[in-house]
Amino acid sequence: MALGAPFLSTLAKDNVTVQYLDNERLATSRKVNFAPRVGFAYQAHPDSVIRGGFGIFYGGLQSQGNTDLGDNFPFSNQANIPAPDCFTNNCPSIASQGVTLETGLASKTGGGLQNFVQNPSVHAIDPQINPAYTMNYNLSVQQAFSSNLVATISYVGNVSRHLSLYYDPNTVRGLFNPSISTQQYQPFPNLGGIGTIHFGGVSTYNSLQAKMEKRLSHGLSFLATYTWAHALDDSSDAGGLSTAVTDRNMALIPFIEEYTNSPYDVRNRFTFNGNYQLPFGRGKTYLNKSRWTDLTVGGWATSLTFAAQSGLPFSVSPNISTASGGSARAIKVRDPFSPGGSPDPSNPNITCATETRTKEHWYNPCAFANPLPGNLIAPPGVTPGAGNSYRFASPVVDKATAIALLGGRSNTVYGPGYYSVNMSLFKNFTTWHEQYLQFRTDAFNLLNHPTLNNPSTTNNNSNGGQITAPRSFQNNTPDARFLQLSLKYVF
Questions:
Q1: Count of CB atoms situated within 10 Å of the CB of 114
Q2: pLDDT digits over 74-109, tens only?
Q3: 170 is a domain residue
Q4: Where are the beta strands (DSSP E) in 333-461?
Q5: Which secondary structure element, helix H or strand E, spans residue 6, and what is its range?
Q6: Half-sphere exposure of residue 100, counting CA atoms within 13 Å on the CB side?
Q7: Distance CA 332, CA 329 (A)
Q8: Which domain holds residue 465?
Q9: Buried b (16+ CB within 10 A) or exposed e, 144-171
């Protein structure tokens, strides 16, 4: 397919050459993946068992969505045609550019979209694909207290490598004063973003898991679990596109420096699922003689599910003008849930929260400091300190100064946790042999407990930590209590 002269001319300006390959996929994947798995079980005592296992598991090369190579020019093309600038007493319409309802965009695109090129962006992928893999390992001890009651405690962990990251090789190789546009300082100044999938992400997960299980006896069964865990990564979803863990400036700060709490890191989680069949009616211990008592009090059962977990982490943003060429974060300097105190000297004009973990102030903004302001960087060609207030020459290219200007790692504060109670009450009416009609009532969020989302105002100004919405539970949002009645015939 013809690429068009403007596109080739744009590439030539940045010394980018076009190569034609006989590999229609443009990338090569590994042919052999070694994935051993081993496990053991040892009965240390008639009522005690020790189990363990290790395995390597490879991830698939999933569809990368909008980063697909097929979404590149010339197979996919987008063109923006802005209206002309409007000033007082001089506000021309877009028709002055020849764009009208009658002619459409022909005046701009009449030569073809291939000739309508300006700062084109492209999608890319590593030419050598290294599929992600995870090393899973676990060790557990299980103890039986009776024929129906068993407890298990386990260590479960994993390490993942070659997770897909999404980065831009056209990232500017330096930080500038906020007043400076960095387009001209990019490695390829005539190109836009070059979103690239790079198989270099890492993650770890470590957990202590406890479980108590009672199998059905005397009408009662339940399963209770508790998990204490910590998950860290620098790439948080299958496509590497998550904005929860983002780089400050990958060209200056290696991405491993973004290794931090995973956006789905739940430190504590407890669950309970129980079912109890009342001991009345046909086939039960009590009131099992009369058909009328069976119809009234027999066949009743109830179930309960309870889940509680701690919150998910998020990042806090600075409230100053930060350096151009990177993404900045506020720096945690003390416990964000400790109220009161004094503002950090880097952020003096804010009001500290008198109470935290509320909808108005989930955290105390005074617990954070701003990174160094971007206006400490001198404009290009200006020497810092020569009769001015600048501290750094332009551009800033060393890692230590870049971190001072862009702040710390992400996901340092944890949002609200939640708990939920669901309950069901049901009765079986025996019809014929093993068939029965079941009537049931189900209550979701029985206690009608509100579940708060992470703060919507996540910066270190006076409004920092404000929560304005409930947590999303798909179709159950907002998570209000609701009841349902149903009939079911089982045969």
A1: 18
A2: 777 766 666 667 777 776 666 666 666 666 666 666
A3: yes
A4: 368-369, 413-414, 418-432, 435-444
A5: helix 5-13
A6: 5
A7: 9
A8: 5-69+123-490
A9: eeeeeebebebebbbebebbbbbbbbbb
Mean pLDDT over 20-30 rounds to 83
- What total of structural domains would you count in the chain? 1
Judged by phi (left if over 0) then psi (alpha if -120 to 50, else beta), residue 37 lies in: beta
17-31, 39-53, 287-301: which is most confident: 39-53
Which amino acid is present at 90? Answer: N
Tokens of 173: 């190789």
pLDDT in tens, 209-228: 999 999 999 889 999 999 99
Q: Is residue 392 part of a domain?
A: yes
Residue 428 belongs to some domain of the structure = yes
Q: What is the CATH number of the domain that holds 443?
A: 2.40.170
Tokens of 243: 């904005």
Nearest of 341, 345, 413, 350 to residue 373 by alpha carbon: 345
Q: Does the residue 406 lie in any domain? A: yes
Number of Cβ within 10 Å of residue 206's Cβ equals: 14
Q: Output phi, psi for 423, to 5 deg.
A: -145, 145
**Pairwise CA distance, residues 332 & 464, whole Å:** 13
Alpha-helix residue ranges (DSSP H) falling in 99-163: 106-109
